[in-house]
Amino acid sequence: MSSQPHVGLYLFNKDLRLDDLPGLIKLNLDVDQLILVYFDEPWILEPNAFGLVSQGQHRRRFVYQGLQDLNQQLSQLGQRLIVKKANIDTGLPDLCKQYGVSRIGYSLDVAPYEARHIEAACQALPQVSWETGTSNHLFDEAQLPSDPRTMKNTFTPWRKQIEASIEPVKPADKPTSLKPPVPGIHSDTELQTPTDVRYWQGGETAGLEQLQYYLWKTQHVSQYKETRNGMVGWDYSSKFSAWLASGMLSPRRVADELFTYEQKIEKNDSTYWLYFELLWREFFHWQLVKHQHVLFAAEGFKGQQAFGEFDTQRFTRWCEGKTGCDIVDAGMRELQQTGFMSNRARQLCASYLIHELNLHWRYGAAWFEQQLIDYDVASNWGNWLYLAGGGSDPRGQRKFNMQKQTDMYDSDGQFRRAWL
Questions:
Q1: Which residues have C-beta within 8 Å of that of residue 404, sequence separation ≥ 6?
Q2: Residue 95 belongs to domain spanning
Q3: Helical segments of 184-304, H only
Q4: Residue 398 scores a pLDDT above 90
Q5: How many distinct structural domains can be found in the chain?
Q6: Residue 386: which CATH number?
Q7: Which comes out higher in pLDDT, residue 110 or 122?
């Protein structure tokens, strides 16, 4: 009499890749059959407290291209991706009970709202074994020099402590085989092979290609510090952020490739500066672990009195790029049309909303959340709070002089002409 097969389930979320996914590799070893699932949760398309949605059209297109790419890769290993249109807190327990799942693997999500859905699913599945990983961070929590809940709130002391004591985890290679799928499970949507050829092509394949392009093919990384404040074109920055944000590219893989590049090609201020920016991303992620919901609070974690107000007309003009400040309007129109704008433009547009329009910073952060193709919850809200003076900036509020910034970063008017 044969025993029932051990069924495992890997929950893809913000890790839409096969490279550097040790949780999947471990789960694959421990089970006989494997369900690989992604929940396209309806709540991300419902209006939030700011009257906006959490995932706009640009990122949605990008994510679905990533799902298509992941499914194509899985098919080569005899597996398939199941996409369910349900919220995790209800859809996951239903799926597990229906197919007798005994083990679940997933990558830790530090976002409080998303984590609540996972916690609710855990409570509904007390008999299931859960395996969590942190492959969307450079470091495991156990590596950190101090508990993230007691870490410093300013970047430079934390960075120096990190650089003096630890290195990123080495990335795991892609699995070469996977256990077979459970028969009879169907997706709620059909995933086709991605065919789009625009720069912002979702999927691990495109993310790894961009990593090869920026480091090895063009060696643009060797000039990164000089070009990173650019505002027009593709090559002024790495553009890794979109693939990192959706988990189509591992930060550990980026760091590992960068260190290899430094050994084989060149190590200079620019290559260090790319790692420096990865550390900024990491810092905000652990700040979110520390502060949780307070990172989204009007007064921030400094507890200062919130300033700004909400005015529908002013906010709409800012969103549509019709403020009358040309460099801000160019940035906002680029964002609306493409889902992206440079780091320099983001700082200027955020400063203008906070300091020139006297609008509350959280509305700006929510608009960026809806629009950005590379939206990352910790980096987005952490940076907005930083500029508003309620977060990690030791200097307080940062107000940019728009004319001076225009003269410095768009002196020839190329950026403004491109979007106005």
A1: none
A2: 7-136
A3: 204-212, 224-227, 241-245, 251-264, 269-291
A4: no
A5: 3
A6: 1.10.579.10
A7: 122
